[in-house]
Amino acid sequence: MQVCFFALADILPRDEAIAHIKESIRQTWGRRGPEVVRRNVEAVDSALDNLHEVPVPGSVTATRTRPPRVPEHAPDFVQAGAGAVVMHSLFEEQLVAEQMAAHKFIDSRINMDAEARSFFPESEIFEMGSGSYLQRLQQLKTELGVPVIRSVVEQVSVPVSVKLSPFYSALPAFVAGVEAAGARGLVLFNRFYQPDIDLEQLALSREVVLSTSAELPLRLHAMARLYNRTGLDMAASGGVHTGDDAAKAILSGATVVQLVSTVLQHGPAAFERLGGELTTRLASIGYQSLQEARGALSLDNVPDAGTWERLNYARLLHGWQSSR
Prior knowledge:
The chain has helices spanning 2-9, 14-29, 34-49, 76-79, 92-105, 130-144, 171-180, 216-226, 243-252, 261-266, 269-284, 290-293, 310-318, and strands spanning 85-86, 148-149, 161-164, 185-188, 196-198, 203-205, 233-237, 256-258. It is α/β, with parallel strands linked by helices. The strands form 3 sheets. Strands 3-4-7-8 form a 4-stranded parallel sheet, with helices on one face. The chain has a two-stranded parallel sheet with strand order 1-2. A hairpin with a 4-residue loop joins strand 5 (196-198) and strand 6.
C-alpha cells in the first residue's frame, strides 16, 4: 500500500520515493540476510507492476444481498460479533462443598433410626456439582450456534487449551511440555482470586476487580516470545478493552482475544465496537487481514528484538531519572 500511495500521490518523484522505500527495507531487514531483503524488494516491484486503475461504476447494479452473519434469533452477544463462548471454570472446591453438603444432610442421618438404612439413599448415587455445569454446556451448544469451549476437560477427544498463570520462570520450556502432552492451545493469562483487606472494618474485602488495559503488556511479552516457538494457538485473556488492545495482541502473536471485563461493563455492544476498532486500526497501519498482522511484532519479526528481552528492563532502570 505504501508503494502504491507514493506512486500515485506525487509527493516525491516516483523513482525517488521507491528508492527510499527500498533503502529503508535494506536498513530494516538487512540483518536477517540478503534473501529476506531480496523478497521484500521484489514485493515492491511486484506492487508497481500490478498497479492499475479500476473503473468504479456510478451506481450499484448488483441485485444479490448478503445473508445475515448469524441467525436473527441468536443472542445479542453473538449478533454483535462474539466468535466463541468460554465457560467459567468449575473449581474443585465447588465439587467438594456439594459432596460434603450431601453427606451432611443424607449420610450423616442414616444411623439415627434402626430402619433408616432401608429408605435413605447413599449420596454416591447423586451427581454432585458437574451435572448442572454439563447440562448448561449442552444447552449453550444447542442454542448459540458458535463454539463452546469447556475449561474442565478430562479424557476427551476434543482439542484442549491450557490456561496458564504468568508465574513461570521458563515459560517457553513449560509450553513445550504442554504441547508435547497433547494440548492444542494456550490461554495467557489466568487472573487469580485476590481478596483485599479493609483496614476500617478489619475484614477481608471480597470485591470483583475487573481487568484494565494496564494488564495487557504482560500478555504481549509472553506471546511475542512464544510466537514461532510453539505450534499452539494462543488466546490473549485479560487487559483487552479496546480495538488498539486487540491489535497489539494480534501483532504480538495472538490467534484470538478473550473479552470478559469490558463485556461486563458495556454489554454485548462491546464485541461490535471492539471489532470495528480493530479493523480500522489494522487498516490504518497497512494490514488488511488478521493473518497478515499476526506476529508482525513478535520477538522474531520486530526490527529491534532486544526491546522484548529482559535485559532491556535493566537498561531502563539504569537510565531512569526522577521527575522531581
